[in-house]
Structures are given as C-alpha cells and as structure tokens.
Amino acid sequence: MRVLYATSECYPLVKTGGLADVSAALPPALNAAGADVRLLLPGYPAVLNGLSNLHEVGDLITDLPGCDRARLLIGRTADGVLAYALDAPSLYNRPGNPYLGPDGQDWPDNALRFAALAWAAAGFAAENSYDPWWRPDVLHGHDWQAGLIPAYLALRPDRFAGPFRPGTVLTIHNIAYQGLVGAWMMGDLGLPSTAFRVDGVEFYGQIGYLKAGCYYADRLTTVSPTYAHEIQTPEHGTGLQGLLATRSDDLSGILNGVDYGIWDPSRDPHIAARYTPDDLGGKDACKADLQSAFGLERRPDAPLAAVVSRLTWHKGLDLVLEAAAQWVAWGGQLVVLGSGDPASEAGFRHLAQWHPHSVGVRIGYDEPLSHRIQAGSDLFLVPSRSEPCGLTQMYALKYGTLPLVRRTGGLADTVIDANPAAANDGSATGFQFVNASAQELLWSLRRAMNLYRKPERWQAMQRRAMTRDFGWSGPAEEYMELYRSIAGRD
User: Fold this and answer.
1) SS3 call for 346
2) How many Cα atoms occupy the beta-carbon half-sphere of 353 within 13 Å?
C-alpha cells in the first residue's frame, strides 16, 4: 500500500501545533503496519536543511500555481521516512513561521503556496508523474493546506489523468481553519470557473480549500470520534455541517496517538528524574525542578496545575485567568507556557506579578520545558471550548499528571472523569466539566484539590493514567483499513 502523505508541517523540521506531531508519528506507524508511506512537504529552509541525503527526482515542474519553476527533491527524516520536498524558493524560502510573515499576518500569497503543494501531490497521479519510479495508491492530505488535492483530481482530468486514479483522503485537524480566498483567484489556482458553485469549491462567495476537500475527497477523517460528530452540528461545523452530514458515511473519527518514543517519563532526557507507574519517586524531583524553574515557592504539598497551550479564547484560557486567584487562595500553584492573544498574554503576566510565589508564566514555546512541565505538574488544564483531539492531555496521562478537561472532542474521548462510579470501579483518569464557565472549572478544581489531599487515592489514579495506551499502532490499523477500501480506484 503506497501512500503519499501531504502535510504543511512535520516535527522536528517545522512545527506550529499538533499537526506536526501527527505528521512525524503516524507515517512510521503506518510503515510498521505494512504500508509504504512517503511525505510531501513544502520546501521551507528548515525542511531542506533537515532532510538527509536530499537529491532531485524527475524533471523540473513548470506549471505550479503561482510558480514558474520548481524541483521535487527526496530525502529522509530522522525517523527514516522518505520525504519529498517541493523546492519552490519563490513560495517557501522565507524565515520563521510557515504561515505568517514578520508582521504576524498571513503571507499574502498563502493561497498560491498551498495550492502549489496540492498541485504537486495531484501530479503523482498523472501519466507523467513527478516521480516516475513511485506512484501512490492513496493521496492523504491534511487540513485546508491540502484541501485542493482531490479537487484537482476531479476537476482537471486533462492535467492529472493517469493509468489509474489513487484514492483520496482528507483529514480535518481543526475545522475552524478553512483556507478562504477570493473568487477571482479561480484561474490563478488552475481551477475551472464552472467549479465555483455550491456543489464544488464555492463557500459563501469565496473559494474554500477545506470545503473543496470535504466535497471531492473519497473519504474524510478527523482526529477523534466525538469531534467527527460535533462538526456535523451548527455549534462546531463552522458552516460545513450540512455538507459533512450528507457525507457522514464517508466520515470517520480516528483518534490521534502519542509517540511514546518521545513522551515517556521512564526515558525522557529533558526531565529532572525519570519514573514509572511502579516507582513514582522521580515525579517529586521533577516537581521541585519545575517550581524552581518558574520561581515558585518550593512546596511539595501544593497541588501544581499547568497549562501548555495557545493563549486564546478558543482554548478556554480566559476561564483559567478567571479561576486562578481562587485556586491560589486554596493553596494551589499554576505554571503557564504559551503565546497567543495579546490580551491573554498580558493577563497571565499580570497574574504572575500578583502571585509571584504561586504563579509562573513563560510567553512563547519551549519544547524541552514542555516536557519538564508535564513531568513536574500534578494537574494539567485543557479547558478548551472546542478541541478536535488534543495531544497534551494524552502526554499528561503518560506522565501521571492528571488532566482536567472540558468535555468536548478528543478530550471527552481520552479522559475518564473521576465521578463516583468511575472512582469506585477504578477507571477514572482525570476530571471533566461540561459548560465553558469559570464556575464549572472551579468546581472541578475543587474536586481535584480534595482528591489531592488523599495521597493514596491520588497516586492510584496517577498509576492508572500512566498505563493507558494511546500509541499509534491502533490508529495506524484503522487508517490501513480505510486505505484498502479506496486504493487505486478507476
């Protein structure tokens, strides 16, 4: 089973969020399950510098949208996965964030930059494929940046016809990001004007990259079963709920996994002391290390809650700001790592100034520090208003840092609330609340505080959480079954 996996980011080459972690971990898991998966990435400087044994494949590409001349290169990731890089300097040779310019705004030509990625992916299906030595059975694109792949195959048979048509899959990692551009760009994107209609690429008067993928792909997936249901509702569908409801038989919710080669406290090189479910002693040293790193009072008895997140309303961080003073008054501590809305950043900075011995804040992102936070905290807060899957709560489970989450998306699918029934039967692994309000968050924080004061019960839940398996082998098998159902259609 040959699969081309088209994605706009992949850890550690380039990362802005969970998509990069999934792009790094799922292909090796699929290869272990018997697939031949190759990545297709934009030729950012970090990608070209990070792939080993990079060399050119096939002929020059001279018909990309927005680019007269590009090369297709192939190399290997650090995990040994073969990866194509679309080397188009005019589109990708830029510093910093892959989507944003130095002013913090979207690059004005993002529409062309990711249309080119989709065009290159579709080119693998053409009779004169960009790689004459390898032809995929399935094209698997991710998020709006790859949404035009199935549209190009469906709308441009003159360009992408081949001896057989690969199956197409689009995975929605976050439906809130849709890739909307003006209708005047139809020709520039290589799309026929007749496709600008409701049963095509049109979305409320604009071209919708994600909408196009949702309409034309053979199969759709998203990153948790609950989110697959939620995006078919007006509350979470962001305008696509009707289309997705009509395609419910083609939509699957496959939970993301965790790369336990990276996230495992028994061998994590970033943390102060290693530990296992059978020996939690090292977690105390990690907590002391974290308190020291954030300048907090060294109190082993203080429950330490943590946030590692984008600091946005969507992530529910305003609820944490509202509840934090009461948490501190109860004797708790809080550490925050992230960046986002200026108002949220300022709010957390002020919170740390008001409670310097109980609240620590770092604005930005630091991968090693995020490991230290997972290992050193007692409680991990993910109060998102919407969360397609979430990975940090699964990392927290592995580190015995009990997640406190809002019941939505993948958070609902991965954390079992410590309600009386689950506490009595020994299945609870964390805490959930339902409504996005500071009062409900505080109610769950109080429940967590009460349990924390009962060390035997708290440690039993920690051990249970650490034994939950959210590795990639199960999701990989689900993807393999999906691929087999659509591979190499006529």
Assistant:
1) helix
2) 6
Q: Is the pLDDT of residue 103 over 90?
A: no
Token pair, residue 239, equals 């305008």
The token pair at 29 is 């898991």
Rounded to the nearest 10°, the torsion over CA 187, 193, 195, 196 is: 90
Residue whose C-alpha is closest to residue 279's, from 468, 469, 462: 462
Q: Smallest Cα–Cα separation from 414: which of 435, 429, 436?
A: 429
Burial per residue of 74-85, b for 16 or more beta-carbon CB atoms within 10 angstroms, e otherwise:
bbebeeebbbbb
Token representation of residue 220: 């759709």
Q: Give the number of other CB atoms < 10 A from CB of residue 424.
A: 9
Query: How far is the CA of 431 from the CAs of 372, 381, 408, in angstroms?
Result: 22, 10, 13
Q: Tens digit of pLDDT for each residue in 345-392?
A: 999 999 999 999 999 999 998 999 999 999 999 999 999 999 999 999
Between 68 and 168, the more confident residue is 168
Hey, is 359 helix, strand or coil? strand
Q: Which amino acid type is present at position 459?
A: Q
User: Does the pLDDT of residue 490 top 80, yes or no?
Assistant: no
- Tell me the fold of 2-257+472-486: Rossmann fold (3.40.50)
What are the residues whose beta carbons fall under 8 Å from the beta carbon of 293, sequence distance 6 or more?
360, 369, 372
Model confidence over 182-238: pLDDT tens digits? 999 999 999 999 999 999 999 999 999 999 999 999 999 999 999 999 999 999 999
Token pair in block for residue 50: 């990070």
Residue 341 has pLDDT above 60, yes or no: yes
Rounded to 5 degrees, φ, ψ at 405 are: -130, 160
pLDDT tens-digit map of 301-337: 999 999 999 999 999 999 999 999 999 999 999 999 9
Query: Binding-site residues for ADP-alpha-D-glucose, please?
Result: 15
Residues of the chain with CATH 3.40.50.2000: 2-257+472-486, 281-466
HSE toward the beta carbon, residue 413, CA cutoff 13 A = 23
Which residues are within 8 A (CB) of 15 and not within 5 positions of it... i.e. 6 or more apart? 9, 21
Annotated binding site: 15
C-alpha span between 410 and 395 (Å, rounded): 13
Say if residue 165's pLDDT is above 60.
yes
Q: How many residues does the chain have?
A: 490
Please tell me the distance from the alpha carbon of residue 329 to that of residue 21, in angstroms, as a whole number: 37
In this structure, are strands 202-203 and 206-208 parallel, antiparallel, or unpaired?
Answer: antiparallel
pLDDT at 488: 65
Give the predicted TM-score (pTM) of the model. 0.92
Q: Which fold has domain 281-466?
A: Rossmann fold (3.40.50)
The three-class DSSP label of residue 401 is coil
